[in-house]
Amino acid sequence: MKSAGWAALAVAVAAASVVACAASSSGPATPSTSAGSANTGTANPAEAGPPQYAADVVRSAAEAGIDPQLLMAILYNESYKPHDPASERAWQKIKPDAAFGVANMHKATFDETKRGRPFADRDWQELPDHPDLAIEAAAWYLHDLEAQLPAARSGHTTDELLALGYNTGPGNMRAFARGTRLGPAAQSYLDETHQNWDKAAEALKNA
After folding, report:
1. Buried-most residue among 25, 35, 196, 202 (CB within 10 A)?
2. CA atoms of 124 and 120, how far apart (whole Å)
């Protein structure tokens, strides 16, 4: 779920991050201990990138019944901006409707996806600090998108359509499934998914 303005405002985010870090010198907030999505120890997304989340991806994909390679490819797609908590919260001050977490999920999507799920009591504001929660939510969102695909479809595989749905929303996904031509932004996201496909498989080898 990319934000086109990220590159243009990256310098501002970096500056705001310095302020945010200074303001939080009293220490990090106590992590949530609600059931369903425990912190698995991968709470520092600044260290390594998507491969560090391989175990979370495999687990969440299995629970949601979706392809782990697709989920990992989406993490690669969404890794275009820093995902450390300070940068994400600084970016939100500049762009209040920004997406949160390593899977770049918007609040409305998270709140809809969590209904009836093991992480229903979790809050969107937790996503920057809990990559495992962000990955779990992304997996179930992909599950929900798949349930909305039309039975008759043409031109794209299921995984391609789910990646497009993740980026452009379920309505556009259904239109693409019925043969609507991709616009430039959707085509770019699909191209990135293809480019990251083998990297995603490699990242999952030792999970």
Report:
1. 196
2. 10
The CATH class of 52-204 is: mainly alpha
Place of tokens 């359509």: 161
H/E element holding 158?
helix 158-168
Residues 43/166, Cβ–Cβ less than 8 Å: no
Query: Would you list the domain boundaries of the chain?
Result: 52-204
Which of 138, 28, 46 is CA-nearest to residue 83?
46
User: 24 is written with which tokens?
Assistant: 């939080």
Distance CA 58, CA 28 (A): 28
Residues whose CB falls within 8 Å of the CB of residue 14, separated by 6 or more in sequence, listed in order: 87, 90
The pTM score is 0.79
Instruction: Give 45-74 pLDDT, tens digit per residue.
Output: 444 799 999 999 999 999 999 999 999 999
- Contact (Cβ atoms closer than 8 angstroms) between residue 197 and residue 190: no
Query: In terms of C-beta density within 10 A (0-12 exposed, 13-18 middle, 19 or more buried), how is residue 179 classed?
Result: exposed
**Cα-based torsion angle of the residue sequence 64, 67, 69, 72 in order, rounded to the nearest 10 degrees:** -30
